UniProtKB/TrEMBL annotation, chain A:
Carrier of the growing fatty acid chain in fatty acid biosynthesis. The gene is LOC18603424. It comes from Theobroma cacao (Cacao). NCBIfam families: acyl_carrier, PRK00982.1-2. InterPro entries: ACP (IPR003231), ACP-like_sf (IPR036736), ACP_chloroplastic (IPR044813), PKS_PP-bd (IPR020806), PP-bd_ACP (IPR009081), Ppantetheine_attach_site (IPR006162). Residues 56-131 form the Carrier domain. It comes from the Eukaryota. GO terms for molecular function: acyl carrier activity; phosphopantetheine binding. This is Acyl carrier protein.
TrEMBL record, chain B:
GO terms for cellular component: cytosol. This is holo-[acyl-carrier-protein] synthase. Pfam families: AASDHPPT_N, ACPS. Coiled coil: none annotated. Keywords: Transferase. One of its GO terms (biological process) is lysine biosynthetic process via aminoadipic acid. Residues 46-132 form the 4'-phosphopantetheinyl transferase N-terminal domain. One of its GO terms (molecular function) is holo-[acyl-carrier-protein] synthase activity. InterPro entries: 4-PPantetheinyl_Trfase_dom, 4-PPantetheinyl_Trfase_dom_sf, AASDHPPT_N, P-Pant_transferase_sf. It is an enzyme of class 2 (transferase). SUPFAM superfamilies: 4'-phosphopantetheinyl transferase.
Amino acid sequence: MASTTGASLKFTSLSSSFKQTQVPLRGVSNVNSVSFPSLRMRPGSLRFRVSCAAKPETVNKVCEIVRKQLALPDDSSVTGESKFSTLGADSLDTVEIVMGLEEEFGISVEEESAQSISTVQDAADLIEKLMDKNCA
Amino acid sequence: MNIRCFQRNFSAALPPLVPLQLPSPMETHLWYILPDEVKSVALLNQYSELLSPCERENVNRMCGDQLKKRALLARALVRTTIARYQMNCEINPRSLKFRKNIYGKPEVEWQNEDNFSPLPLHFNISHTTSMIACGVTVNVPIGIDVEEKQRRIKNNITAFAQRYFSPYEVKLLTAISDPEVQCQEFIKLWTLKEAYVKALGKGFSAVPFKTFTIQFRAPAIRNLHPPGISVSEASEEIVESSNDPTNLTNNWQLALLEVAGSHYAAICMERDKTVGGEANMPMKLTVRKTIPFVEDVCVSGTDAVLALGGIIEQ
C-alpha cells in the first residue's frame, strides 16, 4: 500500500490550499507542485428574518438535541444556519432528531413538514409554529 | 484506436485504475472503503483533484475534518468505481458528469463523445462514519444502505417502529425481548428499507417506510441457507404466495450482508425480466474492499462478507 513519508504528515483541513508535496507514490516520482486556490466556504444564504422566526431559546434547544444525536464534538459549531446534512446527519439521524424534538416540545410533526426541514432554524421555526397551534 | 483515448488530464502520479468487466445481469458489484484506513494526506489531495469544483465546494461545506474526509472519499469512490468499467478506452474519473433525478438520486450523465460509449451502468452509494460503499449493476436500478452493527438508537425502538414501520414489522420487532437483538434487527430492517427506496430512486421522503413490508422468509431448503427476503405492500396478513400481485418481490431482489464484521449492508436491485429473473434466482455478488489507486481486494467468499438474508451467490 502506498504511503507518504509517514509521521510528519497529518491530515490538515481541506479548506487550506492543496499544495502537492514532492512525495513519490508507488515509485512514480515527481509530481508537479500544484496548489489549489484556498477554498472558502460560501457564505450562508441570507435569510430575511420575519417576525415569526423562532426564539433563540428554541434554536438553542434544537442545537442541543442535534449535538446529542450526532455526537458532535464540543468545539464544533452548531447554529441556526447549520444544515443537518453538513453536520453529517443521515436519514436515520434526521428521523431520530425529529422524534427527539417531538418529545422535548410536546408536538407532533407530520412527514411532509419533517421533509422540509434542512437547517436548525427551519426546525426551530416549525416547532414554534406547532406549539402555537397547540395553544391556539 | 483513437489517440484521444489516451489523453490524461489528471496528475501523472496516479497509477491507472485496474479495468474491469461490467457486472453481468443479475449481478451486483459492491465496493467499499474504510475511511480510517486512508491516512495519507497526499492521497486525499489526489482524490480531491478528481472532483468537480462543485463537488469540492460541497465537501468543503461539511463541518469538521472527519465529515469532509468522508464526503471526499464518497465522491472519489463513485468516480473511480465507475471509471473502472470503461474497458475499451480508459476513462478519466475526473471527466465523469453526474446529475440527479427528480427525487435527488444521483446518476451518471453520459457525455456524447466519439471515443466514449455510454455504459448501461447503475450505481448507488451509502456512507456511515466508518464505511463508504458503492454498489454497481447493469441495466437495472440498484439501492444500497450500510449501517454500523453497533449503532445505538436513541429513541425507544418500539415507538420508532410504530411510527415508521409497517404493522407486520412492528409486531416482529416488539416480540424480541433482548434489547440488543431488537436493536440489531431494527437496524437490519432499516437498511433493507432504505436500500429499497433508494433502488426505487425515490428515497425516504417519497416512499414512506410504512407503506411496505420487508420480511425474512424461512429457507425452503435446510437451514444452511440464509432466509430469502421479500418486500410487499404493507398489509396485516403475511404474504405467502409469490404470485400475489401485492408482492413486490417479483420485481425487486433484496440481500442483506454483514461486511467487515462491523456493518450491515443491504442491497436492492430490480429483477431483470429480460434475462428471466424469477423470484428464486440468486443475486450474484462480488464484494471488493478498495483504496482507489492503492489497492483493491476481492473479499467475496471470505469472512469479510457474511450473507444474512436473500438468495446470494458469491
